[in-house]
Amino acid sequence: MKTSGAVASSDYFYGEDADDGVLSELKDLLDEDVAGGAGLRMGGVKQEAVPGPGGGAARWGPPTIRDGLAAANGDNAGAIALATAEECDAFGDGLQSVSSGDNESSCQYDGASCTASSVSSKKPSRSKAKSRATCKLGQGQGHDSGDSEAADSKVRRRNTNAEASRRSRLKRKADMERLRERNEELEQDRDLFLERIAELQLEVSTLRHAGSIDIARENELLRAEIRKHKMFVSSIVRATREAPQMLLEERVRLLKSGIDSSLAQVIGLVHTSTNWPEHSFVPETARHQMRIQYHFLPEGARREEIKRLGLRLEAYNFELDAQEMGKAMWELNRTQLGSRQLKDYRTKRDGIERGVERFVSDEFARALEMLDEELDVESYYEKHEREDNTFETVRALFARTYAERTLSPHAFFCTGDGASAAHESRAEIRESVADGVASCSIIATSEFTKQLIKAQLMNASETTSDTRLMDTSLIHGYVILPSSPDPGSGAPRCHCISVISMPVGYFSGIRSTEHAITKDNELADAFLSAMVSDTEHLWESCMATHTNSVAGTDDEKSTSTPISLPST
Description:
It contains twelve helices and 16 strands. By secondary structure, it is α+β, with helices and mostly antiparallel strands. It has two domains: 10-139, no CATH class; 206-551, no CATH class. The termini are far apart. InterPro entries: bZIP, bZIP_sf.
């Protein structure tokens, strides 16, 4: 009988059609296995195998086997078992898994199992040699192989997860770095926008004195003034560097247009500042009756976001004619005596090294001779100590002009009511100022460092790494108005207004917002005291200069070494 695959048809084992020849052949095979010590249990036959030397026995069981024959063999014994119908009901439906041990082997099929129990035997089973089981399995091989594959799979899964985590961490790190860089760029852009907004608000505010204007009118005036200011700056550059084909008269015309623009900005700032908040603090060291107003740009910004500071200081009833006061102030600036005196005064107060130098050129000097108005250019610098004990030089160049303009003095004063003392002071000021229109002296100072750098008019020594150049605008001016004569002596008197719009973070006056502005967005007392002291020092120097001029005495007027410009 052929039993290849350890499977035999059920027709051989039970029912009326059972073949005695087949049973006989199986019996012979059984006898051989019993001789080797194997035991066989089959159903449906009333015979028992003769015990072999190994003590094995074969016995035929009840006729209930339908489809199963399993063959299994161990290292020390072999066994053949025919399973019952309940045990091998799904035998033919497919093999699921096979496992083997030292003394026991089993085959699992779709819910049915066939188990072969081994007995001690040194002779291998011949039935296994004759008919190979479909699910042949070596001792211990299934468990070892499964454990190894599971371990390998776990290692591969762990490595895959680790690699994915590493890539995810690198991606997050790169994203955070990009976001950090982008955030820094946006903060820088925001600072630039705030500075530009502050400058535009300043420029528009200086034009409001033209009367009741709407947005379109403001834009039109702003564009016109910007064009005039650019022409003024370019005229200074061209006067020193322009090609010979440009006529001297053209340079003079451009310079005059620029002078008019600078004067208009100061007049507009004086008009606009009448609506600024009034500061209640007046330093005890102030030697004159004084009114103080201030303004921050951009409007409504927090202290750390403020880019420009506007300050208005006014004092009245100086015992000097308005025109004489204006001429004395210009003389101090033209000879740089006032700048040098103010420099020494500030250095004595805070110990910061400062310097004032004249900015000159042959072409520039020839153009100035043909102007009706006065114009002077000077370089100013300060040395500041850094946190690492090194020094940084902050430098800026200023153009200063002087002119007489017919204005309405009453337009420069506030009309609102405030505290009683402040209201009385304003009333006294308005009463003391001449009615109608009058000739007023104006001294205007504007900064144009950026334009000179673009024109390559700065010396190489002034653009070194330890020098920081001013890259935003500064407007400073004085308007001197005639006042009513002294009621007792009849001597002429004048009223002085000083206005300034300066950027934050350059010179000692306002190195930082923390230095000049309190947490409540008000002027700091120390900063205000210094500004008041400087302004009063200049006013008193002007009066002293006029007195000396009238007396016929000549004070020593020291001048600094001029700045040499590149030849054209």
